[in-house]
Amino acid sequence: xxxxxxxxxxxxxxxxxxxxxxxxxxxxxxxxxxxxxxxxxxxxxxxxxxxxxxxxxxxxxxxxxxxxxxxxxxxxxxxxxxxxxxxxxxxxxxxxxxxxxxxxxxxxxxxxxxxxxxxxxxxxxxxxxxxxxxxxxxxxxxxxxxxxxxxxxxxxxxxxxxxxxxxxxxxxxxxxxxxxxxxxxxxxxxxxxxxxxxxxxxxxxxxxxxxxxxxxxxxxxxxxxxxxxxxxxxxxxxxxxxx
Length: 243
Known about the structure:
Structural class: mainly alpha
């Protein structure tokens, strides 16, 4: 979910500020894993050789993130970064759950996915795109993140032999196509966005059906990675065609 908005934004609006922002975002993302390891060790009252590294690595990543963000602000007008302020509460919600080692719950995953989607409009605005298509791109990536979280969580539970409700994942997926159609009709997004969201619906309908092939979580993750890259590239081609 981090790669999709970065890929879309950098393809549509490559810039030095965008590269700095992408690097900072990646550093902040990579800091989460060692930080959770350190918090986990502390919560159990244990200390291992990995604990020391896990405590220092987030500080190193944070330094890179701060330096990269400062460089991005120095290279571009601060106004394009406004979408990040809008989603800051969602990022704080995810951070609060991560601090309690509960980052895998539904709420933080949804909040984190939507917060990351804001990177796409920031990169587009910094690269000179108008506000409407930039926000539309961010909204489409956010919808993709929401539906992916619901789909993957449901798919993994099904493959474990459980019987989760399919309605939330499928209803959310069905709702994305009309939203994409409205944005396309208004001229804010390319019509390929409708086809792309339709392809996501087909993927979800098959992946949650009895005809699916049971797969390991890692396989489902790589499949979703490929779907996300395809979705971002298709949107990028569509938005480029609008110019």
